[in-house]
Design brief:
The structure is a single chain. This protein is of the alpha+beta class and 324 residues long. It has seven helices and 14 strands. A hairpin with a 4-residue loop joins strand 5 and strand 6. Helix 4 packs across helix 7. It is globular. It starts with a strand and ends in a 12-residue tail after the last helix.
């Protein structure tokens, strides 16, 4: 079997321990790495953990489970894909963070991998995916670490919730069945939903804004019946450089469901004055984006509420007509 070994590296203007901490916390990865859609920590024990990653490879959504060994003293993280996705037969590697000075470090990303049946075409596909993702991940890591302090005030999260008199399964179904949203949601003009891999969706929508303009968005969604749908928007409007989110559905003791829409956004400060006017501030952009996203989320949640409660509403009994 042919095992390929490759290495990529980048120099980052930040202390090595800070870089390591960012890499060690996988919950931040969808914000840091463009290909990463969602990461779940499956279990952890001491320095070892199992994580499940959903990410795009050459533009196609894939998912795999990896086992990681964390070494905070040596500033190393080794990983091995426990469950791979075709055409990958095996994949492992190491993150190594090396101090170059007080405020500078080198990050090396090592991979070794094999293709199923040693297929040369598949090996070439993996070569391209690993090279593209490694360069993208390292560049994003550099950008995000170096701008961490500068962007603290332009990355923010918020959520909207609604109580629904119905089961989490029914509410989840309304959000999961996004292919029907153009029929169910007034602000959605057209929608294209594909799910080539069960549980991984590609959602493209044309949505109407208050001013009548139509905006096209594309997101990758990861579904967890019947309690969560996580997503990452990959076509972004001019005021955002990042938009991730999740829908959660929590059944309450009284049998109703608390449905929540959560968003995490990073503003594109370079476009604020072009979009909102010469005197617009970061706070103006934050309020504008928050309002726009929250308005759509609340509208979707309230339509989900109406739809679900209609499903579960008792039907009035009609009295049979008596024979005359």
């Amino acid at each position: 079997m042919t095992t390929r070994e490759v290495e990529h590296e980048i120099t980052i203007a930040a202390p090595a321990p800070d870089v390591y901490r960012l890499l060690a916390d996988v919950t931040n990865w969808p914000r840091i790495f463009p290909p990463t859609i969602h990461v779940d920590r499956v279990d952890a024990s001491g320095s070892q953990e199992r994580i499940r990653i959903w990410a795009t490879a050459n533009g196609q959504p894939k998912n795999w489970t990896s086992r990681r060994e964390l070494d905070p003293e040596g500033l190393r993280i080794t990983f091995r894909q426990e469950v791979t996705t075709k055409p990958v037969a095996a994949m492992s590697g190491t993150w190594i963070v090396e101090p170059l000075g007080e405020n500078s470090s080198r990050v090396r990303l090592l991979h070794d991998y094999r293709a199923i049946d040693d297929d040369p075409h598949d090996l070439l596909w993996i070569d391209e995916a690993v090279d593209k993702n490694s360069r993208s991940e390292l560049a994003a890591l550099k950008e995000n670490v170096e701008l961490a302090h500068a962007t603290a005030d332009v990355t923010f999260s918020f959520e909207d919730s609604v109580h629904i008199d119905g089961s989490a399964k029914d509410v989840y179904a309304f959000i999961d069945e996004a292919g029907l949203w153009s029929e169910r949601l007034p602000h959605v003009a057209t929608v294209r939903l594909t799910e080539d891999t069960p549980g991984v969706q590609t959602l493209e929508m044309d949505t109407r804004a208050k001013d009548g303009s139509v905006h096209t968005t594309k997101s990758y969604r990861v579904t967890f019946p019947h309690h969560k749908i996580a997503y990452k928007q990959v076509t972004l409007p001019a005021l955002m450089t990042l938009h991730t989110g999740r829908w959660t559905f929590e059944e309450t003791p009284d049998g109703s469901t608390l449905a929540t829409s959560q968003h995490t956004v990073t503003l594109n400060t370079a476009n604020i004055t072009r979009i909102l006017g010469p005197h617009a501030t970061t706070e103006d952009a934050r309020a504008y984006v928050h309002t726009a996203l929250s308005t759509n989320s609340r509208a979707t949640l309230h339509h989900a509420k109406t739809h679900t409660e209609t499903l579960t509403a008792p039907h009035p009994h009609t009295r049979p007509e008596r024979n005359r």
